[in-house]
Structures are given as C-alpha cells and as structure tokens.
Design goal:
By secondary structure, the chain is an alpha+beta fold. It has 13 helices and 18 strands. The chain starts with 15 loop residues before the first strand and ends in a 20-residue tail after the last helix.
C-alpha cells in the first residue's frame, strides 16, 4: 500500500489506510493509547491497543512515525474520524519537545525553527504560498515578463538613511531597497515586467508592520499613466484576495478570518487625495504638520473609516522619492499613491515616473546625491524616454492583513528586525 495523507482519511471510511507524519498529541493508559498524527494536510486521532501499546507508550510529541490501520467514523474524535492502528513503526523517537502551552510570543520567535510546525504557522505559510502564487498568476496572465535585478546596488532609491551598507571586496555597496531603478532600464526592452524578491530597509522602526528584510512584489509598465496604475493596484489586490479565499478557506478559518468576507473584496476601491486624508484625520483629532508623510498611527486611524482597501493619491513631493513625477496641476505634489488596508496601513507605494533627465538631476542634487553615481540610470532618459509607472507591494503586509496577524513577524518564516537576526 502507498502512504496517503490525513486529508484523504474520509475517503477510506471502513478501509485500511497507511499514514506517516509526526505525533501532535499523545496520551496513554494501561489499556489504550491515543495518538494524534499530523501531516501537512491536517491531524487525525489514532488508537493503539494490544501488542503495539508498549511501542506507542514510548512516543513523545514530534516523534516521526508510520502507521497502518482501519478508518471509522467517530463524532467524538477531532475531524470526525478515528484510526484503529494495526501496524506502527517509529521512524525517529523525538526528545522532549521544548514548546508547551502558554509560552510568550517572544520566546516562540526564538524557537521559530520549531514553532514552524505549529498549526498556526503552518496555516499562515500556506496562505503565504497562495499569495505568492496569485501574484505570479496575475502578472503572467496579463502578459508580463518576470525580471530580476541585483541585490547589490551602488546607489539609493528610497532614501539614504535606510540603506544597509556592506563591504564588497573592500568597497562599500548597498543592499537593494527596491528593484526600481533597474526596472526602469528594463522596460525599454520588455515593456511590461514584474518581480517578487527580497528588499532591505535599515529602518529603526519597531512597529508591528516593519521588517528589515521583506519580500517585495514590484511592477513597471511602459506607456502607462497614473490612472491606469491605480486600476492595476486594485486589480492585483482583489485578485490576491479571490485566490486566497478560494485556495485557503480552511487555513483562514483556522486563523479566525472569514474567507467569504475576503472573497467580497473587489475593485474598485475608494480613492481620496492626501489633502482629503489630512482633513479626515484632523476631524478625528489628529494634528499633522503640513507636508508630512502619514505614519503608521495615522494610517491605522484613517482606515477606521474604511472596510475596503483605500487609495490615497497625490502626496507632497517633499516626502516622496526623487523619481516620482510632479503633478502637472500642483507642482508641490507628485503623481503617487499609497494603498492602505485596515489594521496594517500601507501595502502598496506607487507612482508615475519622471521622464525628464533635467528634472531628475535637479532632484538628486537637492537631496545631496552625486549625480555621476546615477549616470547609467539617467541614460534611460536620453534614448527614447516614454511615460511609465509602477509600484511595490509589501507581501508580508498583505499576508498580515489577510491572516489578521498582530505582528508582521508572523507573516514570514524567519523574520529579521533590528532586534532579531536569529534563528
């Protein structure tokens, strides 16, 4: 017989099945042992009696086992089925497992290499996989090419204060904050490109939504303006929601999230300007200095007014990156937007790009940058510069939002923060 999975147990009602996995729960008496077996698809209760009882008695949590037995319905058992074991092999007898009930979140993160086995983390990581798959499906379905840029870069894109500097054969170089500048070079050949890759931000932020290393889904499109860019962001997020609700309904329910509610998230989303957002926040009693960016606290407060994702457009030029195009109707603003979601805040940062080489050079000088470092990037504006736009989506923030997580650190297998570099 071939091994089956726990999810297939109902198909074998009244029949013999072979399973393998790890001991999730274990209790025994003199006459019977109850072993809850887990694999990637779920858990099932197994009963052991007779000659196999001594072997079952020695089992500990997370021991790896293979078993054979007869399936039968039992409403009292988890999942409604139970297996009467007729054969049991111990593949590996685990030592006493260090993770027990009522342990702190901080301690569990220190044991993340073992906590990944928990039902909660398994459910989150399955949702994470579905999110990545949906992003690929969306862009490839739209005829986009996957393009990869270097992780080592000689220049900043999002602000010099958040750069990680590393030694590169005796010379300083930076870990990539974004693929942005390289993507703008690539679109003049491929026109429509996307990527999902790690990005690095040396931010001292210790909020519930910041990581120093995170996964960035980015897109860049030639011939695309600001309005189409907003529609594209809406479409992608809605597509992700539909895919996750369909593929991960069980996992979402385990995380106490309603897949039906997520399935109802569809474009278009509400849109307001930055100035309108400031007015709403002032009515809520939050005072924001003119021209300042919205912080996590302010984004979360703003989202108390919205159930769907919200697009906030036309931010002040002073708080956005040098490559963003000025708003023709208001030079103090840029054609940029952030997409915000409840409980998390920003998940997308987007803009139409500046096409004028003179304007780019002026902005770089204003920021104190050596324009010679950007010579290769500025070349893209010398030879056939066209209107183009793009955005970056923080994948872990999307996962945090969909899974209802208190901290973004649980949206990735091994989080990296200013305070955490291990395991």
């Amino acid at each position: 017989m071939e091994f089956q999975t726990v999810s297939q147990v109902p198909e074998y009602d009244g029949k013999v099945i072979k399973l393998r996995g790890w001991v999730y729960r274990h209790r025994a008496s003199k006459t019977i042992a109850f072993v809850v077996l887990r694999d990637v698809t779920g858990t099932v209760q197994c009963t052991v009696k007779g000659d196999l009882l001594p072997k079952a008695d020695e089992l500990r949590i997370e021991s790896a086992i293979e078993l054979e037995g007869k399936v039968h319905k039992d409403e009292r058992a988890p999942g409604g089925y139970e297996i009467t074991v007729t054969g049991l092999d111990v593949v590996h007898l685990a030592e006493r497992f260090p993770i027990t009930k009522d342990q702190s979140t901080q301690w569990l993160r220190e044991q993340r290499h073992l906590w990944l086995r928990s039902q909660k983390m398994t459910a989150i990581l399955k949702v994470r996989s579905a999110v990545f798959g949906a992003i690929h499906d969306y862009f490839r379905g739209k005829g986009y090419y996957e393009f990869h840029s270097p992780m080592f870069t000689p220049c900043m894109a999002e602000g010099g204060s958040t750069l990680f500097t590393v030694d590169y054969y005796g010379k300083p170089i930076f870990l990539a904050q974004t693929w942005q500048l390289y993507a703008e070079a690539a679109i003049f050949g491929l026109e429509k490109i996307y990527t999902i890759a790690p990005s690095f931000r040396s931010e001292k932020s210790r909020t519930s939504r910041h990581l120093t290393e995170y996964w960035h889904a980015e897109v860049e499109t030639a011939w695309q303006g600001f309005d189409a860019l907003q529609e594209q962001g809406e479409e992608l997020v809605a597509f992700i929601c539909q895919a996750v609700a369909k593929k991960c309904a069980k996992e979402l329910e385990e995380l106490e999230q309603d897949p039906k509610k997520i399935a109802k998230i569809k474009a278009p989303f509400p849109r307001i300007t930055y100035d309108e957002a400031i007015k709403i926040l002032k009515k809520d009693g939050m005072s924001i200095a003119p021209g300042k960016d919205l912080r996590t606290l302010e984004e979360e407060k703003l989202m108390e007014h919205y159930e769907l994702p919200l697009i906030v457009t036309r931010y002040p030029k002073a708080v956005k990156a040098f490559y963003m195009r000025e708003d023709p109707e208001d030079p103090s603003k840029v054609l940029a937007y952030d997409m915000l979601v409840p409980r998390v805040g920003e998940i997308i940062g987007a803009s139409e790009r500046e096409t004028s080489i003179d304007e780019l050079e002026r902005k770089l000088r204003e920021e104190g940058e050596d324009t010679s470092t950007y010579e290769w990037y500025l070349d893209t504006r010398k030879y056939g510069s066209v209107q183009h736009s793009g955005f970056g989506l923080g994948v872990e923030r999307v996962i945090q939002w969909l899974c209802g997580l208190d901290s973004i650190q649980d949206a990735i297998g091994f989080p990296r923060t200013p305070d955490r570099t291990t395991p």
